[in-house]
Design a protein that fits this description.
Length: 383
């Protein structure tokens, strides 16, 4: 039993860290939110770097501008790039890491050597990775000339990070519908998962939430909840929205670097499965594929979730890899992190840069907060 004296000593020891975190994390977050609701750097009559600059409160005007203004199509394009990058980056790392872990679990010779080789890219910074892959993805060299150099075949005619093709095009005004359908699908999946676990109250809450989201969408009430995205000004014919093919090279480089991380996590999880369970499954007639499918992989679900959370967090904040590979001015590969840099440190549009940073924080919080809540809840239940 802890005494009050022990609690006091622990609090005093943690107090300096709490003060520093409060100032340099939450204090700066609060300052960024306040700045995003001003016209700092947006008012031509007030030079942003003047000593006596006056910052007027404008509310959510900066958020509305970057979401709907014709001239701010770059930010909307960065959100779409982040979405596609996150999906393919997380999926690629999980699949590649799992395959590598399964291969190394076959007691291959030189396992330590291969494990080190696969983990090595993780030791590099994204800047180094971006520089290496930028050389390798040159249109007239690198990967493109490998078929010609090795097999005598015609070189690959793909411009990689300079590509201007747009795949899966869609209209910005349809984003609320896509988000609604995605939310309903996630809630339906949660309801089914809860039902299979016989958690009926949680199942009921998930079904009710899905119905409420659907009714809000059918009643066309989204414009009263968030900014109206279906304005004609938000659509720009000169910049069609979709999956920019220039992201393929960046996704490949990111997966190459981080798949070793997921491999290490999966190896640790696989080695943590008791061998007795595998032997019992083999005695019952399971093949090796069934052993992995029915015994090993189900026990990796928490590790897969943790890997997806960490990778999703990385992808939402990605900056240095894209900067090193494509530069800050490539509209086809722009991400919100690059816009925070260009708007804040080039254009001195501090209010707009702060608004973009706050939106990034929101998306990161959407991923991290539920995960941390579930982890804390699980640890409290285990006690």
């Amino acid at each position: 039993m802890r005494s009050n004296r022990d609690r006091l000593i622990a609090f005093v020891m943690l107090l300096p860290s709490l003060i520093l975190v409060g100032i340099f994390v939450y204090g700066f977050i609060t300052q960024a939110i306040q700045t995003s609701m001003t016209d700092w750097g947006q008012n031509p009559e007030q030079p942003p770097l003047a000593a006596n600059v006056v910052k007027s409160f404008v509310g959510l005007q900066n958020y509305q501008n970057i979401m709907t203004d014709t001239l701010e199509f770059t930010f909307r394009n960065s959100l779409i790039n982040t979405f596609f990058f996150t999906v393919f980056f997380v999926l690629g790392c999980v699949v590649a890491g799992l395959l590598l872990a399964l291969l190394l679990d076959q007691n291959v010779k030189g396992e330590a050597f291969f494990r080190t080789v696969f983990l090595f890219p993780m030791a590099l910074s994204f800047v180094v990775t971006g520089t290496i892959w930028r050389w390798m993805l040159q249109p007239n060299g690198g990967i493109n000339i490998l078929p010609q150099a090795l097999l005598g075949l015609p070189p690959i005619q793909f411009t990689w990070i300079n590509n201007r093709d747009v795949w899966l095009p869609f209209e910005w005004g349809n984003v609320p519908m896509y988000v609604t359908m995605l939310g309903i699908a996630i809630l339906a999946f949660m309801a089914i998962n809860y039902a299979l676990s016989r958690r009926w109250r949680a199942t009921q809450y998930a079904v009710i939430a899905a119905v409420v989201v659907l009714l809000i969408f059918l009643a066309r009430l989204w414009d009263f909840i968030w900014l109206p995205l279906d304005t004609p000004e938000a659509e720009t014919p000169i910049a069609p929205k979709g999956f920019n093919a220039a992201l393929i090279g960046i996704i490949i480089a990111a997966v190459w670097q981080m798949s070793g991380y997921t491999m290490a996590m999966f190896i640790a999880g696989i080695r943590g499965v008791p061998e007795e369970l595998r032997e019992a499954a083999r005695v019952d007639g399971c093949s090796e594929i069934d052993v992995y499918r029915r015994i090993v992989l189900p026990q990796l679900n928490p590790i897969i979730l943790s890997a997806m959370i960490v990778l999703g967090h990385i992808s939402l904040k990605i900056f240095d890899l894209v900067f090193a590979m494509a530069g800050p001015d490539n509209a086809k590969t722009v991400v919100p992190g690059l816009l925070v840099y260009t708007e804040g440190f080039r254009e001195n549009a501090f209010a707009k840069a702060s608004a973009i940073a706050v939106i990034m924080l929101f998306f990161v919080a959407v991923i991290i907060v539920p995960y941390l809540w579930s982890q804390l809840r699980q640890s409290s239940q285990e006690r």
